[in-house]
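INFO batch 0412 | record 1 of 1 | parsing
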Amino acid sequence: MEPAIILSGTDPDLPSRPPVGSKRYTNLREMARGGNALLRSGFDSVIGRTVAIKTLLPEQAGNREERRRLLREARVTAQLQHPGTVPVYEIGDDDFWGLYFTMKRISGENFFEALKRIARKDEATVAAFPLIRRIEIVSQICQSLAYAHARGVIHRDVKPENIWVGNFGEVVLLDWGVAKVWGHPDDNQPVRQSSLATDKTKESEGQLLTLTAGGQRPGTPLYMSPEQVDGKRGIDERTDMFSVGVVLYESLALREPFRGQDIDETFDNIKHAQVPPPSERAPDAGITPEMDAIVMKAMQKKPSDRFQMMRDLIAALKELA
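INFO prediction complete | emitting tokens
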């Protein structure tokens, strides 16, 4: 839960020399750790509030590509001032942390954790996230994307792990580190390398994670559009549309539509497989023909066959309420 506001944290005067950089933050606690970055909570001793702090892992602090990605994520997030994005408070480059940025700390969890518990039939989670609530969560993410698209930003990595569901109804889209920004010189870089079948490497921008062994959940590839897999130029908002369609499918059926035995099979499924509608994968879930139609339209192979704008998808989802 969010920490309570107490007078002892609001009344003291500012120190004569306010601390800067990492010295400004106390009570650090790790929240999440990825392959390249670390997310911690910390108390901002100047403003008097708890914030989230994102830094690179020490071994990545000198990696120019990872620094570039983290800085892009911070700046893009800071400029997308929408209820469905996280406010950024500070961007800095500290001798101790290296590049970092701080943002609002939101209590809650990523959407995938909730979906996992629903799939395990956890009664409390099933009650908290009925079918219509899961659709509402996806619809709220579409609102964030519609705003970003109007600002010339394509997310390119929409997936349940990047959707944060707060304890007070907030739904926030995270991780804009691989976003495409119109006019940026690398906007048309292809996203697929020539061979990714078993290697644990990743694409230069960190967008493409390999499938892992032992039946574990793969990362980003499950949600990529056919045009991303092919490395086509001119990716636009309809790429995010496809990824949202995959997230919506998984939210309803609790299964990923394009999962293969390895990354090559997954990519082939994304480009060519005609998957059954979610109601056929989960016949007892209460999925209606109208829900099926929306999901399948969003996941069409050709961008021209999908919803053309997020507002069109939002309008269709509202009709389900």
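INFO post-check: Residues 108-318 form a domain with the Transferase(Phosphotransferase); domain 1 fold (CATH 1.10.510.10).
INFO record closed
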